[in-house]
């Protein structure tokens, strides 16, 4: 059994535990920033157990199927990434998972769910161009879309892609559903449309949604690490440290900035994509 298969299996088995702990740390740090003690570190696991022990109020069976599809494609996305597969296929699977999640919200026939689905589509429009630029940037630097080939390069990709890295960090706020871009669903009390996408989802189906987000968060941090990883062993601890730093930055932004309208999110994300991404590409073409 090679390292690619081991990495894939480790992601499938350990990502939910790592994602749950990450959310517990998020809650704890957020509480400290707000002058509160906060819940226990393992509170997300208690909440997930409670959700799975509750009876689900099923709106329709199509919604359950779509939520399960969301989980399956998120797990497939991360498994393919940690296996060292094609980065374009990885991002395609991630987009397909997002489509399943949006469709599950639309199938509920609820005004809050529909509004959340519309805003989730706007969020996808905001971050997808930057996600595509990430894949293209890695190809321009390494000549391959393969994750294993990118990691095997002698120089970390961030040396050539600082603008792409900065742009990806910017859209992570959207992907992590942090303020100021927590538009479609929110963990804050200021949300004006209840729970948006997950308004009509309850019980063990809502537990599957939470589990999917844990898998997705670990995968996204894996993409952050990909910018730092190379053939040198010391790139691994550096990448892990940068991932923790990036996540702390997202928590800080979440607690400092108020939520904005979707128009501001779309404009700012595209502006960052154009300035950081396109400029990085232009410099890369001139240098390499």
From TrEMBL:
It holds the Pfam family NADHdh. Keywords: Membrane, Transmembrane, Transmembrane helix. One of its GO terms (cellular component) is plasma membrane. Signal peptide: none annotated. InterPro entries: ComplexI_Subunit1, NADH_UbQ_OxRdtase_su1/FPO. The chain crosses the membrane at residues 6-25, 65-83, 89-109, 130-151, 157-174, 218-249, 269-287. It is a multi-pass membrane protein. It is found in: Membrane. Its main location: membrane. PANTHER family: FORMATE HYDROGENLYASE SUBUNIT 4 (PTHR43359), FORMATE HYDROGENLYASE SUBUNIT 4-RELATED (PTHR43359:SF1). This is NADH-quinone oxidoreductase subunit H. It comes from Christensenella massiliensis.
């Amino acid at each position: 059994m090679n390292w690619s298969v081991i990495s894939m299996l480790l992601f499938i088995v350990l990502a939910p535990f790592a994602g749950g702990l990450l959310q517990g740390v998020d809650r704890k740090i957020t509480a400290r920033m707000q002058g509160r003690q906060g819940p226990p570190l393992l509170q997300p696991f208690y909440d997930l157990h409670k959700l799975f022990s509750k009876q689900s109020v099923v709106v329709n069976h199509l919604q359950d199927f779509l939520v399960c599809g969301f989980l399956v494609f998120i797990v497939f996305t991360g498994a393919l990434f940690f296996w060292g597969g094609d980065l374009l296929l990885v991002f395609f699977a991630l987009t397909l998972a997002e489509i399943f999640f949006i469709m599950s919200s639309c199938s509920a026939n609820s005004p809050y769910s529909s509004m959340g689905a519309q805003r989730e589509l706007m969020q996808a429009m905001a971050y997808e161009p930057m996600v595509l630029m990430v894949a293209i940037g890695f190809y321009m630097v390494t000549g391959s879309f393969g994750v294993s080939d990118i990691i095997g390069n002698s120089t970390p990709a961030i040396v050539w892609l600082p603008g792409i890295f900065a742009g990806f960090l910017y859209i992570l706020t959207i992907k992590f559903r942090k303020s100021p871009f927590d538009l479609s669903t929110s963990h804050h009390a200021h949300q004006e449309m209840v729970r948006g996408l997950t308004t009509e989802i309850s019980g063990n189906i809502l537990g599957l949604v939470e589990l999917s987000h844990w898998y997705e968060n670990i995968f996204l941090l894996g993409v952050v690490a990909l910018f730092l990883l190379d053939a040198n062993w010391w790139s691994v601890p550096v990448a892990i440290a940068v991932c923790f730093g990036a996540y702390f930055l997202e928590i800080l932004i979440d607690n400092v900035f108020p939520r904005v309208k979707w128009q501001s999110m779309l404009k700012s994300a595209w502006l960052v994509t154009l300035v950081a991404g396109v400029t990085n590409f232009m410099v890369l073409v001139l240098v390499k």
